Amino acid sequence: MAKLKIxxxxxxxxxxxxxxxxxxxxxxxxxxKAVIREDRPEVRGQINVVAHLISVEExxx
Length: 61
What we know:
Part of the 50S ribosomal subunit. Keywords: Ribonucleoprotein, Ribosomal protein. One of its GO terms (cellular component) is ribosome. This protein is α+β, with helices and mostly antiparallel strands. The protein has 2 helices and 3 strands; from the N terminus they run E-H-E-H-E. Strands 2-1-3 form a 3-stranded antiparallel β-sheet, with no helix packed on it.
């Protein structure tokens, strides 16, 4: 299964609670922090909520 590298590039300040929760569940909380997650429908849904705050790239193993 493919993996996604998710990096937070903008602040969550001023965002809605759902956006704060999505960032936290992805494992993000600071600008510049990056995590690698499986490409799953649940993760894609969280990415869609905060797409304007993060950058996503596909990585190979």
